[in-house]
Amino acid sequence: MELNPNHHPLPEGYTHTPDGGLSAAEAQKRKEQGLSGKVTADPGKSIWQILAGNLFTLFNLLNFFLAACLIAVGSYRNLLFMGVVISNTLIGTVQEIRAKRAIDRMELMNAPQVHILRDGQETECRMEDTVQGDLNILRAGDQITADGLVRSGSGTVCESMLTGESDDIGKQQGDWLMSGSYVTSGKLVCEMINVGDASYAAGLSHAAKKISRPKSALMTDLNKLVRFISMILVPLGLLLLFKQLYIQQVDVPTAVTAGVASMLGMIPEGLILLTSMALAVGVIRLSRRNTLVQELYGIETLARADVLCLDKTGTITTGKMQLERVHPLHGTEEEVRQKLRRFMAGFDGHSGTLDAIRQGVGTDETAQVLSTKPFSSKTKSSAVLFADGTELTLGAAEFLFPEGVPADIRKAIDDGAGEGLRVLALVETVQDKRTPVGLVFLRDELRSGAGETMDYFRKQGVAVKIISGDDARTVSVIAGQVGVEGWQNAVDASTLKDEAALAEAAVRYTVFGRVTPEQKRALVEAMKKAGHSVAMTGDGVNDIPALKAADCSIAMAGGSDAARHAAQITLLDADFTVMPEIVGEGRRVVGNITRAASLFLVKTLYSFALSVLTLLLPLQYPFQPIQLTLISALTIGAPSFILAMEPNRERIKGRFLQNILLRAVPGAAAVTVCAVGAMMLTYYGFAYAECSTAAAIAAGIVGLVMLGTVCTPFNALRTAVLVAMSIGFIGALVLFGHVFYIHFWQLPSAIWMPMAGVLVLALAVMLLATKAMKAIICRMEQKKTA
Predict the structure, then answer these.
(1) Rounded Cα gap, residues 582 and 462, in angstroms
(2) Which of 233, 274, 295, 407 is packed most tightly, with the most Cβ within 10 A?
(3) End-to-end Cα spacing for the chain
(4) How many CB atoms lie within 10 A of CB 61?
């Protein structure tokens, strides 16, 4: 038999491997020659690169410049803000290193295992331990890790990741396999020829630019905010400096200090750190539950999901089945069992169905199998052809009887489906004559804790959709057993003939049966078009199109390598019941970042507003840098980092930027009113130092009020944070006011009455601004909907 009948180009001097595979000694020799399957991969950032990335940020460089300006004019006390900058840098670096190590550990656990023949025995090893010439045993769902020749077997392969063509391609002895594709059905033995960096997929990876992942809503909005602040910050600060030096004739140290304070106030120095740290902590926490986050912002997209699409198998059921009973249609029950034993002779692979039948009836070792047709998700059946010309086909009755299922068979199937059983028909074909032999009833094992998981999602307002290749009635009954809301709303997807019908069904039904891979993808896309944020779980190659279409994709370990690589999140224990924890972690991260970001943005907005007003009005800038450091630390920095770590189960709604503006604008408006009101008192005989102190106290009070609104509804932690920050602020005023240029004890009594009036006005402005922002955002949403 010619091993390379299609004459594919082979490496110079290459000799084919014997049928029993390489010996261990020969494999070791080839590994030492550099012919291993190891692919040179990007190791990611080193520790020094992580440190440099956190140290040399745009805002940090600006902070260093501002610090140099203060040193130049001898204003050393105002350098206190650099302590916050250094702390932020160290915290960010440590958390990123911890997250990197957690991801590295999880990726090692998730590394694909390759089945090869060595010394005539099938063995499992890592990809980097394979060598050129190894015989790779490939089954449905396996990723092809090296280019090579099919030595034996037959099956179908999906090359869509390489070619963009979605149709499966049949492969048999002598055909060429390309790395990066995956087996969709059948069993193949491939001789691995181009391995490691010499493979086709590795060449594409090295030559191509890094794939651009969809950006998260959170980071997109954050980057917009950072770009805007960067564009206005320096010019505004320089204009303010120019005005005070050359128009107001202020001395250089005072002008520089005011300019630094205005720019410092506009820098949300902890916001980016808080975001990356919260996500990093989320990755670390999930890694402890054996959950690999392959794309960092998969946490966020899952938190935003309001529809969760599940395949029945592996989620609400364990994937394990047992043979419940056999129903004869022709002959006796024992004759049906005998034919099932004969059918099983054609398959040595493992699946829930095959294992249940094999355990229930056994295998006929004497059967002479001529060829097999592995299970296909398109035909919903598999078949075995024997040497005597007989063919046995096992699959869904609707697909085996395209002209219509006979009434007696339909009744038996309906009865089984009503019990929540999976029903397969066995058909025998002899000389083109088809005879229904019997029905096979299989029972799925329900996953422990699935009911509690479904109850969690129902309470959280997440709609669960079950999308399965099994009979819709069977899936519906099982969905009802675990408490899926709306389980009675089931549809057979084989009756949905066009996109319009699928789109309507996606909204109307909860359970979908007899779904093809293309329909899974179409259903996910239809739900997205209907305005939903969709998360999808899957474990098989038939799930890949839907996983790629979903906003968030979750793969179950134990399924196909290809499905795991296509997903953003992988459950390494294949334990679906950890999903509430993953969703909760995502909601904690995004919800708390949104809450904390509004605090950071308050300071940025009022600093910007005060800088503009100081330019336009005959006023001096009200704050010293050290005063802003105090206010920022107690009303923004410390509480933000504490609150960002607390649990948060609320579903994420709306756009990130809209949400933080809704909370930040009212507080910023109130501080601006307080500061301007305080500085206008200089025209009524009060000194600049007294007005600056009054402005700082008012800004601190408004900041604490804002913190209180962010902390609502209160719990023990939020109450403790608000109380602690309030005590800290009062203590700083009373005991250390001189350190922060806050002359609390020197304030004249006459200033308190006008300042009280300014505070009342500021709080009224805060209430009015809150109502106005809600109305504006509501109007924007209505226009978008229309």
Answers:
(1) 14
(2) 274
(3) 68
(4) 11
Place of tokens 């899926």: 484
- Residue 115 main-chain phi, psi, to 5 deg: -95, 120
Rounded CA gap, 594 and 651, in Å? Answer: 12
- At residue 307, what is the residue type? V
Q: Which residues contact 393 (CB under 8 A, 6 or more apart)?
A: 381, 382, 383, 400, 426, 427, 428, 429
* Residue recorded with tokens 């909760």: 584
Q: 647: cis peptide before it, omega within 30°?
A: no
Structure tokens at 701: 């009070």
Q: Which residues of 658-677 are buried (b: 16+ CB within 10 A; e: fewer)?
A: ebbbbbbbbbbbbbbbbbbb
Q: Cα-flanking dihedrals φ and ψ of residue 421, to 5°?
A: -95, 150
Taking Cα atoms as reference points, which of 692, 705, 679, 777 lies closest to residue 737?
A: 692
Task: Compute the CA torsion angle 610, 611, 614, 616 (nearest 10 deg).
Answer: -110
CA distance 436 to 427: 4
pLDDT in tens, 278-296: 777 777 788 888 888 776 6
Q: Is the CB of residue 261 less than 8 Å from the CB of residue 624?
A: yes
Contact between 124 and 117 (Cβ < 8 Å): no
| Token pair belonging to 598 | 């509004």
Q: Which phi-psi region, left, alpha or beta, contains residue 83 (left: φ > 0; alpha: ψ -120 to 50)?
A: alpha
Q: Distance between CA 740 and CA 734 in Å, rounded?
A: 11
Q: Is 38 helix (H, G, I), strand (E, B) or coil?
A: coil
Report phi then psi at 292, rounded to 5. -95, 120
Say what the pLDDT of residue 148 is.
Answer: 92
Residues of the chain with confidence (pLDDT) below 50: 1, 163-165, 206-214
d(CA 556, CA 571): 5
CB 330 within 8 A of CB 438: yes
Cα distance between residue 240 and residue 259, in whole Å: 6
CA dist list (Å): 394 to 382, 385, 412: 6, 12, 16
φ, ψ for residue 349 (rounded to 5)? -80, 180
pLDDT for position 583: 84
Catalytic sites, residue numbers: 311
Q: What is the DSSP letter of 578?
A: G
CA nearest to 550, candidates 573, 575, 532? 532
Q: Which residues of 334-363 are buried (b: 16+ CB within 10 A; e: fewer)?
A: eebbbbbbbbbbbbeeebbbbbbbbebbeb
* CA distance linking residue 575 with residue 452, whole number of Å: 13
Q: What are phi and psi of 20, to 5 degrees?
A: -85, 0
At 542 the pLDDT is: 66
Selection from 159, 170, 560 nearest residue 371 by Cα: 170
347, 361 contact by CB (below 8 A): no
Report the pLDDT value the prediction gives residue 680, as an integer from 0 to 100: 93
pLDDT of residue 534: 93
472 CB-contact burial (10 Å; exposed 0-12 / middle 13-18 / buried 19+): buried
Residue 297, SS3?
A: coil
pLDDT digits (tens, 9 = 90+) for 716-772: 999 999 999 999 999 999 999 989 999 889 999 999 999 999 999 998 999 999 898
**pLDDT at residue 549 in the model:** 87
CB 94 within 8 A of CB 281: no
Residue 656: phi and psi, rounded to 5, are -60, -50
At 483, list the tokens.
């408490």
Closest to 149 in 3D by CA, of 294, 341, 283, 15: 15
Q: Which two tokens stand for residue 616?
A: 């336009």
**Residue 580: CB atoms within 10 Å:** 18
How many residues belong to the chain?
A: 786
344 in Cβ contact with 364 (< 8 Å): yes
Predicted structure pTM score: 0.70
Contacts of 220 (CB under 8 A, 6+ apart): none
CA 328 to chain centre: 48
